[in-house]
Write a structure and sequence with these properties.
single chain; 344 residues; alpha/beta; 10-stranded mixed beta sheet; two-stranded antiparallel sheet
Length: 344
């Protein structure tokens, strides 16, 4: 049988016709057009995911972001039928992880479990290492864990009021530890200082664990850190939570007051978590992922796990997540400029 001959017709290179006019040629032409056009229309993503999905985390294993990523990854693996594998890439304040995802193939098989640093680093590092609003697409907000202000159990601060009195008596004499310059807990305490009209001395560490160790040892009296990291030390009686920086009391610290209850209504500082993907990821894939994350957030297993790490799930649209990233970037830009905060 002679080979079929095809020619492009007119200005559209996708318009193909069989010069011999056979039925078989028409069918082949239609198949060719479909093969060329389907990826552009997004239909090729209907079977997503087609291979294991990598969820990049810019922090070491064992922390709150890692725990949330693994919880969501397990739920998505069950619902989508492919493994969601967490890959920890700590370093450079999470910039290494973020850049690796931006550079990844935009097919939905590489995601980032982002936290506040995604917004803060655009202000903290100059020149900005990336533009999250341009280089990434929000998939879904997942949840949040409050920052807590805690003290060594032997420190003379039973509550926020006692801390304020001491700080105002001797400005700059009381120090607090944080996981590092520009970290969410550091930013939270900088905001609190300005709100309360006090001056504290910041002692940055490289991570929450060494900061907690020194506070327990008495080298530093206070610490700002996320609820998950401080939980076991509060249970053991080595640390005391003065306040949780969330709108409501924490499920894991039910006796600890909020900052609002401590005299600062409206003050809030939480570590939020959400999935993002490379900017060119097809909308069909983003939409499918978002829907599956929303389903996962309704399950008992995910809700219980978020409660165990001291947080709560936050269902919502991708647009809501995009608005949060933009608002956080603007807030951090103002704080970094006013407080002259420098990265480690």
């Amino acid at each position: 049988m002679p080979a079929q001959k095809f020619e492009a017709m007119g200005d559209n290179p996708m318009t193909v016709w069989n010069t011999e006019g056979t039925r078989r040629g028409v069918v082949q032409a239609a198949a060719l057009c479909a093969a060329l056009l389907l990826p552009n229309w997004g239909f090729a993503q209907a079977a997503y995911p087609t291979k294991p999905v990598k969820v990049v985390v810019g922090y070491a294993a064992g922390g709150a972001v890692d725990a949330v990523a693994r919880t969501i990854g397990q739920a998505l693996s069950a619902s989508l039928g492919q493994p969601f594998i967490v890959e920890n890439k700590p370093g450079a304040g999470t910039n290494i992880a973020v850049k690796s995802v931006i550079a990844a193939e935009a097919d939905g098989h590489t995601l980032l479990m982002a936290a506040n640093a995604l917004a803060a680093n655009m202000a903290l590092y100059q020149p900005a290492p990336f533009d999250a609003e341009r280089d990434l697409v929000p998939v879904s907000l997942v949840g949040r864990v409050p920052v807590v202000l805690a003290a060594n159990a032997q420190a003379p601060y039973a509550n926020v009021a006692a801390l304020l009195r001491a700080a105002k008596d001797k400005p700059g004499s009381i120090s607090f530890a944080s996981p590092g310059n520009g970290s969410t807990p550091h930013m939270a305490l900088e905001l609190f200082e300005r709100t309360a009209g006090i001056q504290l001395q910041h002692v940055p560490y490289r991570g929450g664990s060494p900061a907690i160790t020194d506070v327990i040892g008495g080298q530093v009296p206070l610490i700002a850190v996320n609820a998950l990291e401080v939980q076991p030390h509060v249970k053991s009686g080595k640390l005391r939570v003065l306040a949780v920086l969330s709108p409501n009391r924490s499920a894991i610290f039910p006796d600890a007051p909020t900052m609002a209850e401590s005299g600062f209504p409206g003050f809030e500082a939480s570590v939020w978590y959400g999935l993002v993907a490379p900017a060119a990821t097809p909308k069909a894939v983003v939409t499918k992922l978002h829907a599956e994350v929303q389903k996962a957030l309704q399950t008992k297993e995910v809700r219980e796990r978020m409660t165990q790490v001291g947080g709560e799930v936050i269902p919502g649209s991708s647009e809501m997540f995009a608005a949060l990233i933009k608002a956080e970037r603007q807030r951090y830009e103002k704080l970094v400029r006013e407080a002259n905060i420098q990265p480690d």
